[in-house]
Amino acid sequence: MSQEGIPQAESMPDGGCVSPAGSPVGWGGDLLGRMVLLAAFVLLFYPVLFEGKTFFFRDILQFAYPMKHFIWRSFHQGALPLWWPEIYGGIPFLALLQPGVFYPPILFFLLDDFNNAFSLFFLFHHLVLVFSLYALVRHWGYSVYAALGAGVMGLFGGFFLSLASIHNHFQSAVWLPLILLCFHRYLQSGKLVPFLATVFFMACQATGGSPEFCLLSSAILLCYGVWGVPVTHGVHGMFRRTGAFVAVVVLALGLSAAQLAPTYKAMAEMERGQGLNFEDSASWSIAPGSLLQLLVARDYRAYLEVDTVGMNFFLPSLYMGLLATVFMIWAALSFRDRLSRFWLLWFLAGIFFGLGEYNPAYRWFYESVPFFKLFRYPEKFFFLSAFALVFMAARGIEEFGAGPPACSGQRRGIWIAMGLVGAGIVAVAVGGQASRLWTPALVWLMFAVIAIAYSRALLNGHATRILIVLILAADLLVNGIQLLPLIDRKFYEEPPLPMERIVSDAGPFRVFSGALTSPEPLATKNRFPDAPTHLFRHLAVKERVYPNLASIFGLEFPDGLTGLRLRDPVMWSSILSHSPPEKRMRILKRSNVRFWVTPEFAEPPAPDLPLGISRVETIGDALPRAFWVPRARLGREPLLVNTYFSESFDPRAEVLVGEPVAPVPGGDSSGRVVRLAYAPNRVTVETEQNGFGFLVLLDRYDPGWSAEVDGEPARTLRANHFFRAVPLPAGHHVVEWRYVPLGYPAGLFISLMTFVLIFLLSVIGDFRKRCFSSGTGKGSPA
Fold first, then answer.
1. Which of 233, 535, 554, 692 is deepest in the core (most CB within 10 A)?
2. Dihedral angle of Cα 641, 652, 622, 587, to the nearest 10 degrees
3. Domain-embedded: residue 756
4. Same structural domain for residues 393 and 327?
């Protein structure tokens, strides 16, 4: 240890080698290292930077792009994106958490050009990950070569490239190295700036949209502060560090409260609010056979061009480089320093929990540990293992080229690790469990040659580590480039061809896309449309006019996709899916659907039109968005849904409500909607009627909506279970609904107060520093 609190690459127990890890390389070496990483970044993303390509794969297509587009549109309308009207008849956007409305990098979407902002937003996160890994490894005292290895793994690693297409998880994951770096600097110096930086970066992670990765990062940070970094003051020092960790978490949550409080309040309306069943929670576990990806990457070269029905995994790739696995095994066999043991344990924890349903102990954790029931997909636990592999690879690169070649006591471990990995590759080849085995075999052979040359003094330490980093980078790039497919920006800029047939001059109406006549339950929009290849399935999301993507073209839908499954939208979709064909059409009509994009073709697929053009049918007697009814019928929630969708019920004659309404309407009044206008988070309706009745608006009910009638507060009723209504007396009235998410005012207040507290801490800290400097410094000569 060169100074307290900074882990160094220590000598191993056998005493043979002393690493020069702490020796400085100098400003020029660091600049060169960062330039190399920047060049690798440009190489990977050259099509995005210079050829007009952008991202579209998996969740980006149906979640990231339309959600970020809505945020961009709201900002340019001078509003916060609180309510998303385009899917499910409207949903509470802020409460979804996944979009990250208060996520600091969302400021990219203040730029005028959305596609530029979208690309820069994603590229920024890759840069954050790469350069923060480099900075953290350098802070540990490791060489530029080790830091380059870590940065390369963050850029090309299969886990991170897979995660990049699952945008909210990637947004949260990239902040872990900066959180560790700033907290370590705080423990080392005790200064306020790194402490507040830790708070800020943890708040970035919290608002990024992945609560799972926030919890895992918090666990890492606590253990890192208490045990990963040596403590000089015993138990007292551990308590002080624990207190610092608690303060960081509390302040970060306080800063994030404007985002998190609405999500918390909406939990009661979410399907998983009371927890998921074990089968859902444990779906997409890491199958034991998938651990072979620690040795051999899956072959995705033709993935988008093959006829594959769907994805049976959360993460396409767990591959972080063959050499990373070699160095991890070497660490387990030979390294005894604190930091190596720390990351080895986290690597094992990621595998242990990632196995999910294949691990008999996982059910016990599911039933006993708080929060486990709220989350799904145990593959996410590989987050722990992936970062551990990055840091242990950096440790291995540092150690492998350290000291004179004759210093070989501890290097027995590396030969054993190489032998075990080589045997594993041979076993995979004999078992026929993977294709394209020449890549790991070639990487193993090149590393063996380098190891032999170094041990015989044919290569010095610098050349050895350079070659190791190059092999690591080439291995990851060859196996990872296909994990990040790109598409021309015009894909998003040009509307789907069937949109020419979706035209209405009779007010706002919704669109439904998909089959209706099948006697079987309908597939949800969670599935990609049927198409010959996986690429065409992605493209068909646009050409079949699916929500959520088609919302960027101004279309609205009665269904859609959300990461957090809200009960009412899920109920509506379930009723539609399981109803007979004749009832499905009635459900659509009573949900303001006027256009049906059918599975049939107006123009069949052809060589120059591979997806064809879907046929669009107009539903002539669909209910308008807003209308007047003279009477209300009291029903029992949620059973009145059955009445609303029944053939005998007339939705233009009465509205179904779940609470008493006074005064009792006479039933002889008539009225009409004069004007309907939408603005962000606001709806205005003008009506005329000759007696008491109800204005019904076929937008989704949410307790965050409040109404005013002629400027006076009015009661908003849950109408026909899913929608909204306001009772009105005779006359001409202006009804205005405004939306404020439940929990948002309180959350915003907490965030502002936390910001004020942090500002005061900064001012007080600066004041004390100035006073101390003034009181102890020497005066100038008279």
1. 692
2. 10
3. no
4. yes
pLDDT given for residue 22 in this prediction = 41
Same domain, 595 and 668: no
Average pLDDT over the chain, rounded to whole?
A: 88
Contact (CB, 8 A) for 613 and 602: yes
User: Hey, CA dihedral for 723, 726, 732, 737, is it positive or negative?
Assistant: negative
β-bridge pairing 717-719 and 693-697: unpaired
118 and 251 belong to one structural domain: yes
Residue 677: strand, helix, or coil:
strand
- Separation between Cα atoms, residue 513 and residue 668, nearest integer Å: 39
Q: What number of other Cβ atoms are within 10 A of residue 437's Cβ? A: 17
Domain of residue 642, CATH code: 2.60.220
Q: Mind giving me the DSSP string for 377-443?
A: -GGGGHHHHHHHHHHHHHHHHHHHT-S-TT--STTHHHHHHHHHHHHHHHHHHHHT--S-THHHHHH
- Asked if 166 and 322 touch (Cβ cutoff 8 Å), the reply is no
Domain assignment of residue 575, given as a range: 496-618
Give the global pTM. Answer: 0.92
Q: Which residues are paired to 733 by β-bridges?
A: 687
Q: How high is the pLDDT of residue 563?
A: 80
Give pLDDT < 70 ranges for the chain.
1-28, 231-233, 273, 307-312, 403-410, 432-435, 505-506, 663-667, 765-782
Whether residue 229 sits in one domain with residue 83 = yes
Coil, helix or strand at residue 693: strand
